Amino acid sequence: MMLFSLGLGSLFLTTCFSSPISQPKLSFDGIPTLSLADAPVSRLDNSNAKNSLADPSVIQTDDGHWYAFATRSIGSAIHIQAAQSSDYETWELVVNADGSQYDALPSMPAWVGGGPSSTWAPDVVQVADGSYIMYYSATAAASLTHHCIGAATASSVLGPYTPVGSEAMFCPLDQGGAIDASGFIDDGQRYVVYKVDGNSMGHGGACRNAVAPFVSTPIVLQPVAADGVTFNGAATTLLDNAGASDQGVVEAPALTKSGSTYVLFFSSNCFSDGHYTLSYAISTSVTGPYTRAAKPLLQSGDNEFTSPGGADVHVDGQHMVFHAAYNGGRAMYQAVISVVGDFVSF
């Protein structure tokens, strides 16, 4: 495979502003620019695909390189998109030797529905033996209106990844399915946190669950063994939607830890109507209870962002990627966060 560098004046943001976040502005020489505090921030937008680079995840390898993985885009045959950066500032889409876009998960297992599958929200983690696990969501063959979560493995960070087994890892179809898995490790114990997709069984309105009675959309924590796949304890619900104030939706969980404080990042409200947020909740225990911050970390209208959310945080608890609406799709943004006590900031 090889890397394709996107052109000047199109997709990358490199110049500094002061905190808080500022939306991209074109500088005098035509190069789009953006920064967050004193840390450069970039935006990556796959302009050839409608949904761009939504629901990104981020990982750094031992050689210092950064990799991001993102949701399949409408109109594309690519299941999972990949991008790379050597400095966490300038990102490049990964492409094949012939210039076509690289697919990090080229083959689907038997549990995935036939035809063009809708693959969402990948997350990649490295396990103890040096290999990599990708968690991903895809349409369930048993119910084409719902998604389930699978796992795939690879010996290198870019893969290609091979699905594990013929069954989904999380597939509660009677509760609406499951999406948005994210890995987390704490004192040697591995976890997967994910969303039960109850709004897929909701009663209407934005994202199908903005009309009472509101269906539960719990964020669930599942302990797993060192292989990142085998369950080794009871699952715990960490958070659920608060009804109308969340439009019946909480999703896109990502856990990190700062000192003795656990921070659960999540999105609430509907991603498609401008009310989506990047929010967080705090706990002194990995299993909760979690207390929501008084306000979202980012929401529509903050410095001209629209529908920011779908965040992931690197294991260092500082490097974050998220998406926001851009140019008819959703672009990936990167940032550096700070956690001081119960407060998260850029």
Automatic annotation (TrEMBL):
Record-linked InterPro entries: Glyco_hydro_43 (IPR006710), Glyco_hydro_beta-prop_sf (IPR023296), Glycosyl_Hydrlase_43 (IPR051795)
GO terms, molecular function: hydrolase activity, hydrolyzing O-glycosyl compounds
Keyword Iron-sulfur part of the UniProt annotation: no
Gene Ontology BP annotations: carbohydrate metabolic process
Residues of the signal peptide: 1-18
Annotated site residue numbers, Important for catalytic activity, responsible for pKa modulation of the active site Glu and correct orientation of both the proton donor and substrate: D180
Active site residues of this protein: D55 (proton acceptor), E251 (proton donor)
Keywords: Glycosidase, Hydrolase, Signal
Pfam families xref list: Glyco_hydro_43
SUPFAM superfamilies: Arabinanase/levansucrase/invertase (SSF75005)
Keyword Signal recorded: yes
Record family assignment: Belongs to the glycosyl hydrolase 43 family.
Entry protein name: Arabinan endo-1,5-alpha-L-arabinosidase A
Species assigned in the record: Friedmanniomyces simplex
